[in-house]
What we know:
- Keywords: ATP-binding, Lipid biosynthesis, Lipid metabolism, Lyase, Nucleotide-binding, Steroid biosynthesis, Steroid metabolism, Sterol biosynthesis, Sterol metabolism.
- By secondary structure, this protein is an alpha+beta fold.
- The chain folds into two domains: about 1-195 and about 405-410, Ribosomal Protein S5, domain 2, CATH 3.30.230; about 205-395, 2-Layer Sandwich (Alpha-Beta Plaits).
- About 30% of the residues lie in helices and about 20% in strands.
- It is built from ten helices and 19 strands.
- It has a six-stranded mixed beta sheet, with helices on one face. A five-stranded mixed beta sheet has the order 15-16-14-18-17. It has a four-stranded antiparallel beta sheet with strand order 2-5-12-13.
- A hairpin with a 6-residue loop joins strand 15 and strand 16 (about 315-320).
- Helix 1 (about 80-90) packs parallel to helix 2 and helix 5 (about 230-250) packs antiparallel against helix 6.
- The longest helix is centred in the middle third of the chain and has 23 residues, at about 230-250.
- Bound molecules: adenosine-5'-triphosphate and the ligand C[C@@](O)(CCOP(=O)(O)OP(=O)(O)O)CC(=O)O.
- Adenosine-5'-triphosphate (ATP) binds near residues 124 and 128.
Amino acid sequence: MANGLQNWVLMVTAQTPTNIAVIKYWGKRDETLILPVNDSISVTLDPEHLCTTTTVAVSPSFENDRMWLNGKEISLSGGRFQNCLREIRCRANSVDDEDKGIHIKKEDWDRLHVHIASYNNFPTAAGLASSAAGFACLVFSLAKLMNLKEDQGALSAIARQGSGSACRSLYGGFVKWVMGNDDNGSDSIAVQLANEAHWDDLVIIIAVVSSQQKETSSTTGMRESVETSALLHHRAQEVVPKRILQMEEAIRTHDFPSFARLTCADSNQFHAVCLDTCPPIFYMNDTSHRIISYVEKWNRSAGTPQVAYTFDAGPNAVLIARNREVASLMLQRLLFYFPPPPATELTSYVLGDKSILKDAGLEMRKDVEALSPPPETKDNIPSQKYAGDVSYFICTRPGRGPVLLADESQALLHPETGLPK
Length: 421
Ligand SMILES: Nc1ncnc2c1ncn2[C@@H]1O[C@H](COP(=O)(O)OP(=O)(O)OP(=O)(O)O)[C@@H](O)[C@H]1O
Ligand SMILES: C[C@@](O)(CCOP(=O)(O)OP(=O)(O)O)CC(=O)O
């Protein structure tokens, strides 16, 4: 190992996106291996706006495996972290870095410890799927560090053991998590249906909805649904298999009306399963319900769907517009109903791809104040506004899968000490 020197540090940094399911995963048939009761399909979100960056390092001087998340040390003793680390370590291969004079033999990995530093460029544990981007990035970066020869599908099966939805973040574009049949989970992997360039008209706006409510975690919620909801079993056996085929076809043919109908119906059925759980689980709140009504009304008045909505295990709305023009009309509607609270500038209220604000003719607060009610509500007396019910919006689009960051200046660990910078 490295000519007997003990002070070297070898590092890898990677960046991984988050994803939003349009056909939901809800329910496990195996809790430890994280095997689902149905297939699911997701859209990967552009890492420019929502992503995890993780640096992993190895050095003979490290005494333990350690991890820092958003600058704070966290414990790696949890089963999910341990399962991922074990699965990666047992597939590790020899590494030879001639430039640095580092030579690691396959069997050395059993004794070497790793340091992991990770940073989410969006709020952690706020219903924005940080666990999906986080575990995908952990597995992807460790696989590079330890020179795994496995393909992306096999890596997705490891990320799956950190958090089910993480397996879909190993690819960009449109991704299917195939539930598989094997008891050992080897065929429960993610596959890419189409890359991010395939349907690049789509624009995604996330309404991060303010919520004081204490939420049930996805893990607990789906366990309770599996145990008590008859609808979940009907959904997994009868409904989802047909929807998966229809969704694959809609994506393949860029059929937005079908894509939108399936996405909305599947989100609504997932939340119906939550209500069918004993005791019932409420993830959406009044603001979520209002957003659904506005979109439904608009889609109906347009005669064909303009926007799809979907909600995960929380009140945040993920809205998918058929193109940029529709996205700017959607942003006008959203800001009409949910204007920024007093003293909040528009540029800190609409994050991500701010160019959509410009397209919508909204450059300042006064432009929002001047917005007229959406035409589909004209007959109704007077439209109520809900300033403060949305914390902020994020404008994004379908995006690419994980990448390595070669530039050492982007590493989160110090190249000499292997401690957070
Ligand atoms: N960058 C990261 N690297 C590794 N693990 C992470 C990372 N970010 C989050 N996690 C793990 O995911 C957990 C948060 O997951 P949780 O499911 O509570 O929230 P979320 O994924 O942000 O929201 P939701 O699942 O409701 O969309 C953290 O406690 C941590 O264990
Ligand atoms: C509603 C969902 O977002 C549920 C995601 O659940 P998680 O992947 O967070 O759950 P665990 O596998 O227990 O970690 C739907 C989806 O992403 O498909």
